Amino acid sequence: MKLTRNEARKKRKRRIRKKISGTAQRPRLVVFRSNKYIYAQIVDDEQQETKVASSSLTLGEGKTLTKETARLVGQDIARKALHQDVERVVFDRNGYVYTGRIKALADSAREQGLKF
Fold first, then answer.
1. CB within 8 A of 58, min separation 6: which ones?
2. What is the phi/psi pair of residue 54, to 5°?
3. How far apart are CA 45 and CA 101, in angstroms?
4. Helix, strand, coil shares of the chain as percentages rounded to 5?
């Protein structure tokens, strides 16, 4: 039985989430990619709360999802996180392959001073 692309991603996601979780000192930076938008949020799993969130939808970047849009979301999430005194995070790619828009978001967040 062959898995669909989304089923394979969810399987990778479960395997990754067994190993990582966000704490108060190092919350988890989660990325979700849809066909139109890209979302990122910083989550403290111990308190079960979202500390910071950003997306291409809230930035008003239109319906074209490009690496540049992902880069802007990465910069925005890093800026908001540093404003909330969150400097170190654990990166959760949410089962997506670390290339393209996911990599662009992570690299721009690192450039803004977020450490992971």
1. none
2. -155, 155
3. 25
4. 40, 20, 40
Check the CA dihedral 67-73-76-77 and report its sign.
negative
pLDDT digits (tens, 9 = 90+) for 5-44: 999 999 999 999 999 999 889 999 999 999 889 999 999 9
DSSP state for residue 64 in the 8-state scheme: -
Among residues 34, 33, 54, 51, the alpha carbon closest in space to that of 42 is found at 51
52: burial class by Cβ within 10 Å (0-12, 13-18, 19+)? buried
pTM greater than the 0.70 cutoff: yes
- Lookup: tokens for 115: 């450490």
| Number of neighbouring beta carbons within 10 Å of residue 75 | 18
